[in-house]
Amino acid sequence: MNSKIQFYIIIFFLALIGLGLTFYKSIFFGFPLLPGQHEEVWIVEAKITFTAKGGPVKASFLIPSAAPGYAIQSEDFASTNYGFNKTKDEYGYRANWHARDLQGIQTLYYRVQFFGSIRLDSTLLEEEPKLDPLPFFAEPYQIAVDTLIEQTRNNSADTATFTVELLKSLNSPSRSQNVNLLLREHNTIESKTELFLKLLTRAKIPARIVRGLFLKDGIRNKPLSELIQVYDGSQWVFFNPLTGNSGLPKDFFIWQKGGKSLFDLIGGEDSNVTFSITRDLRTSQELATYRANSRDAKFIDFSIYSLPIDKQNALTLLLLVPIGALVVVIMNNLVGIPTSGTFMPILIAMSFKQTELIPGLCMFCIIIGAGLQIRSYLSHLNLLFVPRISAVVIVVILLMSCMSVFSFKLGIQHGLGITFFPMIILAWTIERLSIIWEEQGHKEALTQGGGSLLVACIAFLVMDNSIIEHLTFTFPELILVNLATILLIGNYTGYRLSELRRFKAMIKD
């Protein structure tokens, strides 16, 4: 295979892997592409109160395990003088409190935190239908039930429309005689919902009650709301028993499915369960990391997210070095700005991130200017290369120390940041510019020194961008795209922008 083709194949796969991993993390785990993004986290607290009779007490409370559109982050249980365990049955998980001898008013607390899920688990939406035994109605209610079901079936086309028509019949102000007869015994909302489920079961349609909460910040001491879930032959469909609207409301958090009791109590009476809701904001980065950990994503265990926080902060700066390298390559190979070395502009740009741009420029120019004067004097001593460059390093350290002390005494806090400048690079820059000054003249030395400083400033502005910082840390795999870009630019042999003016006459002719 031709080496040029191999080269482009390598570039293609580097870019593909980098971008593929980036979009995979963003789409499936919710890692944000922009900094400062937040997501809603809901905190629901259930308060359970009852009166103990003065003996053994057993309390069992149904807690949410999984809900479409939401992911549970944490759970907390609070009680005094109770034993506690958590069990699972066919309806989900239950929190169980038990005590030997209690009397008087008792209070139990359960708190859960959850947030919006990126994708829905199909197992939460598709479940095997279970048809309860056909309910029995005494006469004349049985005739009214059969007549109502037959009329509703004639006015509907499928299970969904049958459910809607049946709800209309029960909620209509102008009810038929059969509906009025049935509602005499079911005149409350709870009993009316129970009647509706019995009618669906009598029509051989699997249905169940779904209890949950409409999420709204600041709700206090509210009971669960009820929806009806009907199996239409292929999936479960939600219906509001009061309005007849179909579909699961966007802000509805499912707490309980099925007719199993929400709270069971032995050894007590007068139980009551209320719920309070609070909304909080968390960074999308934090929640995305939690999603990845909860799904046992292996790349999290072998990524920078698994490192201690102080190491992650250090890597934040390190991951910006490839960005600086890309800027140097673009400015040198495409624009044509000469620099004194490759790494010097990158390291100076990173130093500017600690000192800020203007103070850093001033300190850099002072050190380089003073260093060039001292280096000019050392050249007259005819020293060998290694002692000369070592002397320059010592001089640079002395200059940095003196500037730090004078800045502190003058109250200039930015001057203390001079310690972040790479002293070896500064010494080598002074030595290199001195040689260029002696061999090629001051114009070339100023051109390369000014070019290096210009590229360092541009690299700093790019590296200091909050979006760039966020992307390099959140998606370190973008380094592969950076590498592919540098390789592609490295293969360019055409004119640089600075050369277009130089060869303008040739192009014109």
Task: Summarize the SSE layout with pairings.
Layout: H1 3-29, E1 38-63, E2 70-78, E3 83-89, E4 92-116, H2 122-125, H3 141-154, H4 159-171, H5 177-183, H6 189-202, E5 207-214, E6 225-231, E7 236-239, E8 252-257, E9 263-266, E10 268-283, H7 284-294, H8 298-301, H9 309-318, H10 321-335, H11 343-355, H12 357-379, H13 385-409, H14 423-440, H15 442-463, H16 466-474, H17 478-490, H18 497-502, H19 504-508
Antiparallel strand pairs: 1-4, 1-9, 1-10, 2-4, 3-4, 5-6, 5-8, 6-7
Core attributes:
509 residues, alpha+beta, Immunoglobulin-like, 3 domains, six-stranded antiparallel sheet, four-stranded antiparallel sheet, 10 strands, elongated
What does this molecule look like?
With 509 residues, this protein is α+β, with helices and mostly antiparallel strands. It has 3 domains: 39-129 and 211-243 and 250-304, Sandwich (Immunoglobulin-like); 131-205, no CATH class; 313-476, no CATH class. Helices cover 50% and strands 22% of the residues. It has 19 helices and 10 strands. The strands form 2 sheets. Strands 1, 2, 3, 4, 9 and 10 form a 6-stranded antiparallel β-sheet that branches. A 4-stranded antiparallel β-sheet has the order 7-6-5-8. Helix 11 crosses helix 12 (357-379) and helix 12 crosses helix 13. The model is unreliable at 120-125 (pLDDT under 50).
